[in-house]
Automatic annotation (TrEMBL):
The chain crosses the membrane at residues 217-239. This is I20RB protein. Keywords: Membrane, Signal, Transmembrane, Transmembrane helix. GO terms for molecular function: cytokine receptor activity; interleukin-20 binding. The keyword Signal applies. Pfam families: Interfer-bind, Tissue_fac.
Amino acid sequence: YIHIPFFFLLLGILGEDALLPAPQNISILSTNMKHFLTWSPVIIQGETVRYRVEFQGEYEREYANESWIPICECSLITATVCNITEDISATVAYNLRVRAAVGARRSEWGTLKGFFNPITTSLTPPQMKVIADGYHLLVELEDMGPAFQFCVLYWKKGQESRMQQKVVKEVSSVIHLDTMEAGPDYCVKAQTYVNAINRSSSFSQTQCVRAQGGPSMWLVTALVSSAGFAVAALTLPFLTWKTSKMCQYFCCPVAVLPDTLKVSEPPTQPILCGSEEAEQCDLMVHVMPSEEVLRLWIQ
């Protein structure tokens, strides 16, 4: 009886060191140059199982003693999927493996069957929208990333033998394809192309539109913009003049003097200061003979 507790304690210690089941059903989901490693979950009752993912490329196999490189974003994760897109960007064969962990307990590595090369990714046609803007044939394409180019085919319905092609290397906004004639339908389809792997997707479903016959929205926008500029050019000088007048009125107002402070008009007739008396005196002066002067002096 003394050795029974020790026996159960030993079983507990051995149980903690026991290996966990290795992850199963390891596979790759790869679409449009985005790669995900998936596996079935390891179920341990009452425990949270975490996973660690590693990869091995051509360089590691041939020049680095078959070493493995951990994927940092998928270290001790609880999800059963790992985005490996950034880590396996070269077009070479990769091997991948994953193992489970609960505390200090580990599982054996579960390895992907065979190798995975990003060149085998599945490419899908782009999502697109064909637009008839007046007589302009336009197309909107899905932005799938910098690695993708698009081959767009367009033609007048019934004239498939005269199909035209446009290569789109950068998706910025709406792409102008052609100027349509009134009446017939114009059709468009597109496919993706990845230069790094030299592969193309299948073509998208064909979409057809017809010229609307009304004025183009681009033309309407241009006319509205021109009218706006014309109105601004006409009203801006008036607004500037009006603003300057208002500023002058508020900042430098004109003072109006009361009537009592106004200077009256100067008199039209000049004021004579003694000039009339002097003139009268001048008229009374007369010349006297010398004899009379002498007589008056003697008297």
